[in-house]
Amino acid sequence: MKVEFIGIGAIAEIMAQEIKKIKGIDLAAVYGRSLEKAEQFARTYQVPYFTDQLTDFFRLPEIDLVYIATPHSYHYQYAREAIQQNKHVLCEKPLAMNHREAAELFSLAAEKKLFLGEAFWTRFNPVFKELQTIQNNQLIGSFKSLITNIGGNSLTNRRLIDPNLGGGALMDTGIYGLNLLFEIFGTDYNDYTTIVNIGETGVDLQHTLCFTYRNGSSGVLNATIQAKTLNGALISGEKGYIKIDHLSEFNQLEVYNEKRERIYLQQLPEGMTGYTYEWLAVKECLEAGWTELKEVPPEFTLEVLSLTDQIRRDWHMKYPID
C-alpha cells in the first residue's frame, strides 16, 4: 500500500515512523507548502518524492491512499480535492470543522466508492477496546460516572489559538472526552451544560462539559490549552472503578474493586501505539475493498461534529469557515 502525506508537521513525523513498523505500507510522497521543509522531511524519512505543488502531487501514479495531517481548518479542503482526484483518504481528527463539511465528504466518497476514514487513533487501541469487555462482563457493575481531564499549557502554539486554523480546546483535545463518553454511555444523553473560558482570539482556552443520562449516569469532561493538567480518566461503577492513563494515548487501564484493590491491569504491548493499530486497520480496509472504518464509522464522526457544532453555538464561538 503506497501512501502520500499532505502535511509535514509533528503528527506526520510520528506517522512516518509508525509506517516503517508495518510490512506492506510505504510512504511514497509528501506535500508541504514549503518545498524546503518538504525536502527535509523526505530526506529524514527516506521518502522518494516531495513537492509543494498539489497538482503534481495528486497526479502521481500507483498511490493507494492520501493521509492528511494539516491544521484542522484545511482538512475539508484537502480531503475533498483528494476524493475528487479518486484517491482513498485517511484524515486526522476532526475530519472536518463541522457536520456539514463532514457529511459532504462522506457523501462524495460514497458516490465514488472510495475509502474515507477519520484518524481517531484512540479508537483503534486494544486498551480502549477492552472497556467494552469490562462493561459487558460487569467487572465493576454498571458504569455510573465518568470524569476526564486532558490538555496542557499551549498558548504559544499558534495552531491552537488561531480561529482560522480551527484552534481551541474543544476541537483539539476536548473531543477525546466526548469519544470516551459516547463509547461507554452512548450518544442518547438527556441533557448537558457547559462552562467555558473564551480567550482574546475567540477560541475556547478551557471548558467543562457536563452530561446526564436518563439511567442516572453522568459525565464531566474537562479540557484545557491554558494549564497543565493530569491527563486521564476515572470511570466509576457500582462495584469499583477504572483508572485510565492518558485520555488520548490510553497506555493502560487499571480496574479496582470495592475495597480499592487492583484486580485487573491492561497495557499496550511494548513498542505499539494506537497509531500502529490504526494503520493496520486502514491497510485491512483497503485490501478488503471496504470504504469505512468499523472503529470510526461515519455515524460516530457525524454525531461528534453535530454536538461540537451545537456547543460552539451555545458559546457564540464561530470560526471563519462557519
From TrEMBL:
Alphabetized UniProt keyword annotations: Oxidoreductase
GO-annotated molecular function: nucleotide binding; oxidoreductase activity
Pfam families in alphabetical order: GFO_IDH_MocA, GFO_IDH_MocA_C3
InterPro entries assigned to the protein according to its UniProt record, in alphabetical order: Gfo/Idh/MocA-like_OxRdtase_N, Gfo/Idh/MocA_domain, GFO_IDH_MocA-like_dom, NAD(P)-bd_dom_sf
Limits of the GFO/IDH/MocA-like oxidoreductase domain: 130-242
Domain Gfo/Idh/MocA-like oxidoreductase N-terminal positions: 2-116
Transmembrane segments: none
Keyword field contains Oxidoreductase: yes
Keyword Hydrolase: no
Family: Belongs to the Gfo/Idh/MocA family.
Name this polypeptide is given: Uncharacterized protein
Organism this protein belongs to: Enterococcus pallens ATCC BAA-351
